[in-house]
Each structure stands twice: as structure tokens, then as C-alpha cells.
Amino acid sequence: MLVIAIETATMAGSIAIVDDARVISEITLNIRATHSEKLMPAIDRLLGDSGLAIDDMDGVAVSIGPGSFTGLRIGLSAAKGLSYASGKPLIGIPTLDALALNMTFSSYLICPIQDARKGEVYTALYGPGDNSPGKISDDIAVNPDALEGMITEKTVFLGDGVNRYRDLLMAKLGGLYYEAPLPLQLPRASNVALLALNRLEKGDTDDPFTMIPRYIRKSEAEIRCGENRGRPLKGACQEKKELH
């Protein structure tokens, strides 16, 4: 089976085509250009260079978060469009699950951390597994200081939160802190595809019309709407009401 996968939860956008036996092609760009600028041209190039078409795929996979609200919406919109246009099933994969897969053979605890801004990270904990890390906590958004109380054994950290909070975590955790090699720090669409293949083989897919990103926390617009409750509607809140 062939799956095309999209990963846009962070600044490092990634797309890949994977089958049961190999990664056929993968493109990763960790640059400032927005996903809206680079995603569709990259998909065209990926398919063209692979000599494949979207109709050759057996499924469309997408990273559903947590992560950048804008990035997730762009990636999910593209994946839904490809699924709808081709009639291929859609499979949504939690971003942290795919990121943790980078450290499949770690004998230590695995802690992916993604910069959630506002002084927080998106994270979850994973233990060593036979073929993939086993998830042992829910996805959460927390202040990095809180990780000191969560980590009680040697742990490998990876993700774009590492660069921002490395010094803090090393100071808090000392000898319990380990860091994944640089090439394994980024989310990879090929991991999204591999997890999607496992679900697709079981006939486990998602409804393109109801699947939404896994945001974990409220967006700025939702927060402002809550703060303005009882006041005259304006801006994003007014637009939201008019859409309904």
C-alpha cells in the first residue's frame, strides 16, 4: 500500500510517500517560508519526481497536532482536499506520536517537546516498546519547569522545543537529560505515513468532513472571544458569529 503524508505542525514542513517496505520519497524544509507558500508546490514535485499520481495512493495521512494552529490548518486543508478529490481515505496522526517514532529503539524514556510559545511546550511521555514507543501520558501544554516533576529517570528529549529550553532542562534534570541527535529532532512525514499505514491495514480511517486539528489549548481568537463575552462583538468574535 502507498500513503502520501503531510507534516506541517511546526516550521519544519515535511511530505513523504511511503509503502509497506520503503520510504519512496521525502522532502523536508526547515525555513521561514510559510506552509501556504511551499506545501502544494512541494507535493507536486514529490509526486512528479516519484513518477506517481495521487490516484496511485491508497491513503492520505496528515499530522493533526498539537502544533502551530496555522500550520495544522494548512496541512489538514491540503490533506482533506487530496482525499476528497481522489476518493482516497484520510488518516490523521497525532504529531507527538510521529515525532517520538524517531527514537523507536531508545531504551530510555522519550519526551518530544514542541515550542507552544507563551512559555509553554506541547509534550507527552513515551516508554520503550517492541516496534514503536509506547505512549504513557496524554498530550499536554505545560511550562517547561513542570517537566522536572514529570521526569524521574533518564529521558531523551527531541523536537523544536529543545533549542529553546535546553539550558533550563539541563539545569533542572542534570544527568537525567539526554538529547536526540540533530537529524532526529524534527517531525518527519515518513513517520506520519508509517503510523498511517498501520491504521490503514486495519481499515481504521477518519472522516474528512469531521476531522479537526488537535489544538490542546484555545487559540488567541477563542481567548479574546471569551474575554469579550457580554461586550459588543468585534473582530474575530464578530466574524465567528456571522459565519454561524
What does the model show?
The protein is an alpha/beta fold and 244 residues long. It has eight helices and twelve strands. A five-stranded mixed beta sheet has the order 3-2-1-4-5, sandwiched between helices. It has a five-stranded mixed beta sheet with strand order 10-7-6-11-12. A two-stranded antiparallel ribbon has the order 8-9. Helix 1 packs across helix 2 (69-86). The radius of gyration is 19 Å and the shape is globular.
What's the short version?
With 244 residues, this protein is α/β, with parallel strands linked by helices. The C terminus is likely disordered.
- Helix/strand/pairing category: alpha/beta
The CATH architecture of the largest domain comes to 2-Layer Sandwich
Tell me the span between the first and last alpha carbons: 40 Å
Overall, the morphology is: globular
Residue fraction in strands: 15-25%
Name given to the CATH homologous superfamily of the largest domain: ATPase, nucleotide binding domain
Mean of residue pLDDT?
90
Whole-angstrom Rg: 19 Å
Q: Write out the strand line-up for the largest beta sheet, numbering strands in chain order.
A: 3-2-1-4-5
Give me the number of helical elements.
8
H/E topology pattern: EEEHEHEHEEEEEHEHEHHH
Summarize the biggest pleated sheet.
Answer: 5 strands, mixed
Report the count of strand segments. 12
